[in-house]
Amino acid sequence: MKFALYVVGLLFLSQEAVAYKKVHRPKVKETTSEEVKPWIRTIYESQVEIVTPTVIAGVTFSGRPAPTPDPLEPWVSLKKDGTPQTIKPELKNGRTKKGRPEYSTYFKTLSVMTYSFEDLKAHNMDPNDVHEEEVYVDEDDTYISLNPIIRCTPDRYFYKGVAKDIPSEPFCTPRENSMWKVGKTYFVSWYTRFLEDEHSGEVVDKVRIHLSYVKEKASEKGYHKRDIPATFFSSEWVKNADGIYPIEIDEDWLQGQYERRVVVSVQPFNVPDDEFNPLLNGVLLYIMMGSKVGKTTKEEWALIDAGISDEKWYYVAITIPTIVVVVVVFLYFFLHVNGRYRDFSDVTKATLGKKHRVLGKISDMKRFKKMKNHKYDELPSFKKPSKQH
């Protein structure tokens, strides 16, 4: 019975540890008086346009550039799951650390220029010679320059698959097995030059982003082709040159579940819907419930501050009585079934033997050796007084 009480006590202690709830600490709200306003610029030397900035997930797109370039101006990178992260460059020992990324020739077009003697008039060139030279032509950055987020290039690819041996082309974000939580916004980024028309060799101008459910058996994970039951999200056709698209996770996409396995894919404009395979170059990830979406009432905050609003308390209230009953019933039947196999005779005899052991003579005991013994008849006695008549 003591063992049963000990087990029950441990269960109570373990449940109390799970039910611990920290006191709610309100987060400090950051406010700013700066408003994003439209601004005017001239493009292609003579065309005037009004630019309207847009703020997505805290990132300002199409914002007014600084009057003079600043190498220490902050820029925005992307974490593995596609969330934005502001990077502040630093100047150390005359060199800029964490500066804006360089893209080498990834977004330039290679062109071969042919020059005759009449074109160059080179002193070491024969009049009948022709000189060919490879030249990289810069892309039109009229609108690309308004994007403050780092661009996707092949040197930022990752490796996916079970053996991590499959390049993630054309994606840089999100990484495989990333967790996308409800209510948050994530950026899908891809290398725009990867999506070329196989016939003309030209980069496609429009793409569409898809999110599709993935259905797979436990025994088939990572080894066989997965079934795509449905594409539940498709963006509008967007400019491929942007190379980035924001997605805000909707709770309805979970269809009542806590977590769903999905694949994100990008469809070029030149590939028909019936020929597009989301798994061909897609990235597998998870969408899941995050923090509670909605405004918490004063009553709920009061319960949180009291430490009793966590759902774990309800689980503890239901679980403790159930576990106690199960343990007691189990111990009862265990003792009842195994009663005939219990034999405590050896323990009982040993205990009784200790209680009835022979102590020996008192005179031989150390603590009584110095005591002077008297004969029984020498000991004081009490005589009952006789009655007087």
TrEMBL record:
**Where are its TM segments located?**
313-335
Signal peptide segment: 1-19
Q: Which UniProt keywords apply?
A: Membrane, Signal, Transmembrane, Transmembrane helix
GO terms classed as biological process: protein maturation; protein targeting
Keyword Chaperone present in the record's keywords: the answer is no
Q: Does the keyword Lipoprotein apply?
A: no
How is this protein annotated for GO cellular component? Golgi apparatus
Q: What is this protein called?
A: Uncharacterized protein
